[in-house]
Amino acid sequence: MTNPLRTSGGAGPEPRELIRANAPRSVTALERLVSVSDYADFAATFAGIGKASSALLYAGGSALLQVTIAGLDDVPIEPSSDLFRNLRSALTRFGDQQLRIQLVEREALALVLSASVQVQTGYDWTLVEPVIRAALLESHGFASMALGQDLASSAVIATMAAIPGVAYVDLDVLVTLGREELTAGLARLTGGQPGGNVTPGVPANRGPALPRRITVLPGRVDGGVALPAQLAYLQAAVPDSLILNEVQP
């Protein structure tokens, strides 16, 4: 049997780390939601919700309590799904009856990173590279990044430099791209070639100076319209968004 509609809102068991993080939240807003943060804490305890944030905004002529959510492992949550509708109903039921509640899905941003790395004498690049990649996906993957969390280039460099065998790191590209511009953006950054346009053993050509910090926006109002919080992270399913090149001594 084929389902003609895209599935959404489904998720596997919650990771142990998420259960541990949500445990104290489950008792912070018993039976009623008072503070702005209560709404995010309440939403985060719902099965299938991986991340949640809340913001009190002013849009459409009145105050608005906006709750931004992301599914477990960033699984899409359609407004028509049971999860979305049940959560919105619960927020309205337990929240301030005089306050407008808006539930929205996160604005997804793909973190795109390219770095040139030199390994120490006696280390094999083919063995060190997978360790660097795994460390970056852990420190800057979905599980580790929060809604509206900025990205510091120093933190990315520190993650790579901490791997045994790494002599030095030269960060060549660090940008975020929206889902709709990901394919074209990667082609532009890599010269249209999978794995980048960098010759092995030669550092990549730099463009403009890299920013020390990439801003990732929380829930906000732009042009009178309330916009969801952004979420930026490295995506393991898109290999060309994380390019590591060896630099020979």
TrEMBL record:
Name of this chain's protein: Uncharacterized protein
